[in-house]
Recover the amino acids of this structure.
């Protein structure tokens, strides 16, 4: 395939960015989207041009670092798919593909398509932990948990912290991420120790980082590569209200 790529180039957060257009030939339908970008960068390097900066790590849909907005969709047009799992067979010969970074003041651009997502780490640090005794891990069967409850906790825990929810939300809200991190601990008895303050602290940190408020548009759920439900936001609201009323 022959493709036209319109890629956002920006030297840093304070620099002015712009789209630049590139032509890529001989793209195999078996390539992943990131492999296609590798081909582009090899061509740029051979032509003594600066390659496009983009993030990647596991390339297995686990780590969430492959954060690209492709033709207006976080992670591309395929539902339940990260950018690294998106393959070129889903595009046509002669297509023009627009590639951008996440757009959020809380995710400042580092360079080109790379953004700084340290804000997510600070939200987790504010309350996404449990108090446990040091030493040998407790036997898994020592705390019986209903299968349905465990499944709900695991559904929330599948969040990979990629930030697609922020990129999809017109308010740049990270409530789906925050809710997932609160919800998977709220379902488990191990999370009860910090339950009274967890939601309040994480929501306060969410707001302090500059993320927007949730207005129930649910674009976050539609674009989440792990298809995490907005029902977790409802649980976060309940946990937050309980924490506020309790005053702890």
């Amino acid at each position: 395939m022959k493709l036209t790529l319109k890629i956002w180039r920006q030297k840093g957060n304070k620099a002015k960015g712009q789209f630049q257009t590139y032509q890529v030939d001989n793209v195999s339908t078996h390539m992943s989207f990131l492999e296609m970008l590798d081909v582009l960068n090899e061509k740029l390097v051979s032509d003594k041009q600066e390659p496009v900066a983009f993030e990647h790590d596991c390339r297995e849909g686990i780590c969430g670092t492959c954060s690209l907005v492709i033709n207006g969709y976080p992670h591309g047009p395929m539902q339940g798919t990260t950018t690294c799992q998106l393959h070129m067979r889903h595009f046509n010969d002669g297509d023009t593909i627009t590639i951008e970074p996440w757009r959020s003041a809380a995710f400042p651009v580092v360079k080109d398509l790379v953004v700084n997502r340290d804000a997510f780490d600070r939200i987790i640090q504010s309350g996404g932990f449990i108090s446990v005794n040091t030493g040998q891990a407790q036997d898994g069967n020592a705390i019986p948990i209903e299968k349905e409850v465990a499944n709900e906790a695991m559904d929330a825990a599948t969040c990979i912290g990629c930030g697609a929810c922020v990129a999809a939300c017109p308010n740049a809200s990270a409530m789906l991420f925050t809710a997932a991190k609160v919800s998977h601990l709220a379902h488990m008895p191990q999370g009860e120790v910090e339950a009274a303050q967890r939601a309040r602290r994480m929501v306060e940190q969410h707001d302090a980082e500059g993320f927007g408020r949730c207005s129930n548009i649910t674009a976050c759920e539609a674009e989440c590569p792990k298809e995490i439900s907005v029902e977790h936001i409802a649980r976060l609201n309940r946990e937050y209200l309980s924490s506020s009323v309790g005053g702890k």
